[in-house]
Please model this.
Amino acid sequence: MERDDIIEYSLDAHHSEEAGKAIRKKILNVTILLTLITVIEVVVGAKWGRASTSGVTWQMIKYGYIVLTLIKAAYIVLVFMHLGDERKSLKYVILVPYILFILYLIFIALMEALAVGHAWSTYGS
Amino acid sequence: MAGHATQQIDNTDLWGGKISPFSTSYGKLMMWFFLVSDALTFGGLLIAYGYTRHDAQDAWPIGEETFNSMPFLGHGFPLLYVALMTFILIVSSVTMVLAVEAGHRMDKRGVVKWMIATIIGGFFFVGSQAWEWYHFIHGSEFGKIELADGSQAIVKGHFGEIENFKVTIAGKHHKKGDVITEDLMHQYQHAVVAGDIENGVITLHDGSKATINKKADTHFEMIIKKDGKKNKVGDKLEGDKACKQYYEVINSGVANKVIYGANLKQNEYGPQQYAQFFFFITGFHGFHVFSGVVINIIICLGAVAGTYHKRGHYEMVEKTGLYWHFVDLVWVFVFTFFYLV
Model:
């Protein structure tokens, strides 16, 4: 039975042939970008990976990797999953609690791990 | 949706009831909430991996050293195969987004076409992961070796092919003078682990003894992964001297000096937890991919049958799409933290 007391809404549920063309172009651009980032990551990994670099250079490459990963993740979530086109309220309900919690968890877990590692390496000496 | 066209809602009415203040359907919202909780699971697993890695005392395995094989081509291709896997998953994510876009134009043929492409990409990825696991479990031809000074090293280079075993002392099955040419590598590695090789003579399963005819290794290089009395982590030993050191251990007849591949009890790549986390996280992700493929097939059949067309919208395709992109999203992080960093 169809209920008529609840109206459901979906953003952009339908679009025209014209709008479709623009969307497909955007998808193509994002595809090229994601592929390019992956290629860069692999070339850097094979040539200047952890096996062949160390110290400050490796630290910079490492954080570079994390930044590239976050860029990729952002494009997947905002464009492919259309979260960028959703209402602001939905966007924040999904993103803010998750990011806050994960940042805190990363902080406390890694701090603890470093302390435990330090304790092990100095144990008995 | 359900027959209603998209409506612009006045901001003042948003939280007044009867409508979705998020301007999205119940199903889609619940899919998002599910994905947030699933993302917390994967986040927790990856952070646990990071924890173990930060408090580990031994050298952590390096991605480009551990994963350098290609199907049919052998070794020496650092990260290439996993890059290909990543590309396949990204492309299948793109075809999924194209299916959703076709759904928005009520283009049934387009939806079915792109869904099928997505399913094929998913199968390719799962198959690739099976291959990767097989290789990871099997390990390299040299294995990880414990040297005389107590240090542990992995070996890079080209393993000279074993041509045959020539039986010198008869056992239960083999007569003296027999030349064995089958299943050589397996028997050889088994004997190495059991300490059944002494001075180039291998003791086979049936008790017979045979000499090993093997081509010379080339580009031999040992990289120290655990401190010993003499060698320190990161040291590289090259050339004939290193090769001699390696085969002294192989020919010593002492058991458990070499580890081939990885399982839940031991692994050749580094600290034991590395293998556990590898199996658990990539396994859990692979399971997600597999369920994603199954769900995609179901929804694709629905699209073929015209269920969504009759309903007036292809929101089911959109919801499955969300799940599928999420799988891709997780892989982006697994790729970085297991293979690159």
